[in-house]
C-alpha cells in the first residue's frame, strides 16, 4: 500500500504521496505543495533534506558506507573494471560487451584531438593561472569549435556529443598542466588506452622516449573510477541545473568544473596536501591542528574530513588508503606526509569532537598522497578529480535530459524590505 504524509497548517490538512526508491529510501513528493496550500514553500538551505530528482545511476548509503554505480559496488569496480568500462556503465546503464567497449574506445580515439586554434586560447593564460580555471574556460571554449545543440531525442547525436567530450577533455586537462610546466603540447598516441594516453599527454618529454608504467596506470585507473560519480553532489547538481535550461553538454560540464574547484568540494584534495605540508613544516604537531579544527573561533577545518552524506566511513577513502600504501611501496617512495596523514586520522578518529559529529576521512584525504607519488603537481589534483568525475557528470546530464526534467528553479522566503517609495538622490 502506498504511504502518505500529512501536513497540517493552521488546522488545514494536506496529503502528499511518499515515493519509495529501489533501496527502500522514502521521499515525500511535494510537487503539489504550493498549489494545494496556496503558496506555502519549503526552506532547506544547502538542500540537506531535499531530493532534487529521481535517479537510477548511483546509490549511496551514508550510514552504512555503501557506494554503488548502477548496482555494482565501488569495491568490485575498483578491483575488476577499468575506467572506460565504468564510464560506459555510468553513462549508458549497463557494463559494455566487448564489441560495445571496443567501439566506444575507437570512437573516442577518433575524436581525441582539439582544434589547433584552442592553443591560442591556452596561450592567452598566464602560466600562474590555476589549472581548474583554465580547464573550465577551455571546456567552455570547445563549444565555439563544436557549435550546434544536441538533439537529445536523437540517440546518435547524444552519443556523438558524449564521445567528443570524453575524448577532448583529457587533452585539455593534460595541456593545462604542460602549459604551467612550459612543456610543448603532446597530441597523445591512439595505440594507448584511455588512461595510458592521458598519462602520456601529461608526462611525455620532448627529449625522452615515453616509458609506460603499469603501476602508475593501475593507480590512476583506480583513482578515476573512485571519483567517477557520487550522485547529487555540488558539481553534479550544478551540471544538472545548468543543463536543465537546455544549455549544452559542454557548457554544463564547464559549470560543473567551476563548482568542483571549491575547497569544500573537489578542491579539498589540494587543500589536504597543503595542510599536511604546513603541519610537517610546523614540526609535525598533529595535536595542535586537531585543536585548531575544534576551535570555533579558528576558521581552520581539518581538510579531507567530514562529508555531507557519509556518517560512518567513506568507502572510497578506505580503498584509497590501502592503495596509497601499495602504490608508494611498489614505487619505492617514502613520503613523510603519509605518516602525518595517518597520525592525524588516528587522533581524530578517537577524538570526541570528531566522533560526535561523525567526521571521518573522505575521498580527498589520501588521494593527494597517491597523486604526489605519481609526480602530479598539487594544483593539478582537482583536475584529476574532474577527469574522474566526467562520466558521472555526463551520465547525470543525459539522464536529466532524457527524463525531460523541468528547468531547475528553487523558491525562496523573502526577508528583505517591504514596499517603500523611491527617494531621489537629493533627499537621501
Ligand atoms: N573539521 C572540523 N570540523 C568540521 C569539519 C572539519 N573538516 N567538517 C565538519 N565539521 C563540523 C562543523 O564545524 C559542524 O560543527 P557544529 O555542529 O559544532 O557546528 C559539524 O561538523 C557539521 O559540519 P557541517 O559543515 O554542517 O557539515 P556539512 O554537511 O555542511 O559539510 C563538508 C560537509 C564536507 C563541507 C565539511 O565536512 C567540510 O568542510 N569538510 C572539509 C572539506 C572537505 O574535506 N571536503 C571534501 C568533501 S568529500 C569530496 C567532495 O565532495 O568533493
UniProtKB/TrEMBL annotation:
| The UniProt record lists the keyword Transferase | yes
| Keyword Transferase applies | yes
Per the record, the pathway is: Carbohydrate metabolism; tricarboxylic acid cycle; isocitrate from oxaloacetate: step 1/2
What's in the keyword line of the UniProt record?
Transferase, Tricarboxylic acid cycle
Question: Which CDD domains does the record match to this protein?
Answer: EcCS_like
Query: Where does the signal sequence lie?
Result: none
Recorded hits in InterPro entries, A to Z, give:
Citrate_synth-like_lrg_a-sub (IPR016142), Citrate_synth-like_sm_a-sub (IPR016143), Citrate_synthase (IPR002020), Citrate_synthase_AS (IPR019810), Citrate_synthase_bac-typ (IPR024176), Citrate_synthase_sf (IPR036969), Citrate_synthase_typ-I (IPR010953)
Q: Which reaction does it catalyse?
A: oxaloacetate + acetyl-CoA + H2O = citrate + CoA + H(+)
Q: Coiled coil located at which positions?
A: none
Which Pfam family, giving just one, matches this sequence?
Citrate_synt
Task: Report the family membership.
Answer: Belongs to the citrate synthase family.
The name this protein goes by in its record: Citrate synthase
Q: Which organism is it from?
A: Aquimarina addita
Task: State the taxonomy lineage.
Answer: Bacteria, Pseudomonadati, Bacteroidota, Flavobacteriia, Flavobacteriales
Amino acid at each position: 500500500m502506498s504511504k502518505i504524509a500529512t501536513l497540517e497548517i493552521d488546522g488545514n490538512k494536506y496529503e502528499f504521496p511518499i515515493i519509495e526508491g529501489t533501496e527502500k529510501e522514502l521521499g515525500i513528493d511535494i510537487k503539489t505543495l504550493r498549489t494545494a496550500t496556496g503558496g506555502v514553500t519549503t526552506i532547506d538551505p544547502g538542500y540537506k533534506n531535499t531530493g532534487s530528482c529521481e535517479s537510477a545511476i548511483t546509490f549511496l548509503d551514508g550510514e552504512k558506507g555503501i557506494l554503488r554505480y548502477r548496482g555494482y559496488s565501488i569495491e568490485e569496480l575498483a578491483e575488476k573494471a577499468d575506467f572506460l568500462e565504468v564510464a560506459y556503465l555510468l553513462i549508458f546503464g549497463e557494463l559494455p560487451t566487448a564489441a560495445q567497449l571496443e567501439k566506444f574506445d575507437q570512437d573516442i580515439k577518433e575524436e581525441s584531438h582539439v582544434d589547433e586554434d584552442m592553443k591560442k586560447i591556452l596561450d592567452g593564460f598566464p602560466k600562474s593561472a590555476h589549472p581548474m580555471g583554465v580547464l573550465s574556460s577551455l571546456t567552455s571554449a570547445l563549444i565555439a569549435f563544436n557549435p550546434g545543440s544536441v538533439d537529445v531525442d536523437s540517440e546518435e547525436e547524444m552519443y556523438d556529443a558524449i564521445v567528443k567530450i570524453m575524448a577532448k577533455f583529457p587533452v585539455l586537462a593534460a595541456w593545462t598542466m604542460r602549459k604551467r610546466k612550459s612543456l610543448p603540447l603532446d597530441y597523445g598516441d591512439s595505440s594507448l588506452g584511455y588512461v595510458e594516453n592521458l598519462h602520456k599527454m601529461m608526462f611525455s618529454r620532448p627529449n625522452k622516449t615515453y616509458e609506460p608504467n603499469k603501476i602508475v596506470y593501475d593507480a590512476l585507473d583506480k583513482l578515476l573510477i573512485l571519483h567517477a560519480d557520487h550522485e547529487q553532489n555540488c558539481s553534479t547538481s550544478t551540471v544538472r541545473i545548468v543543463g536543465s535550461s537546455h544549455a549544452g553538454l559542454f557548457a554544463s560540464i564547464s559549470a560543473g568544473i567551476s563548482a568542483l574547484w571549491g575547497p569544500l568540494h573537489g578542491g579539498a584534495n589540494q587543500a589536504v596536501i597543503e595542510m599536511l605540508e604546513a603541519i610537517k613544516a610546523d614540526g609535525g604537531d598533529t595535536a595542535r591542528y586537531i585543536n585548531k579544527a575544534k576551535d570555533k573561533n579558528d576558521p581552520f577545518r581539518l581538510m579531507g574530513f567530514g562529508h555531507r552524506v557519509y556518517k560512518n566511513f567513506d568507502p572510497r577513502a578506505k580503498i584509497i588508503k590501502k592503495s596509497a600504501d601499495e602504490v608508494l611501496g611498489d614505487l619505492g617512495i617514502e613520503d613523510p606526509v603519509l605518516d602525518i596523514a595517518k597520525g592525524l586520522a588516528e587522533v581524530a578518529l578517537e577524538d570526541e569532537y570528531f566522533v560526535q559529529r561523525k567526521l571521518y576521512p573522505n575521498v580527498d584525504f589520501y588521494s593527494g598522497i597517491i597523486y604526489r607519488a605519481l609526480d602530479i603537481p598539487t594544483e593539478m589534483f582537482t583536475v584529476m578529480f574532474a577527469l574522474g568525475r566526467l562520466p558521472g557528470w555526463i551520465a547525470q546530464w543525459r539522464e536529466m535530459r532524457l527524463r525531460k526534467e523541468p528547468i531547475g528553479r528553487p523558491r525562496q522566503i523573502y526577508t528583505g524590505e517591504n514596499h517603500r517609495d523611491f527617494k531621489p538622490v537629493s533627499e537621501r
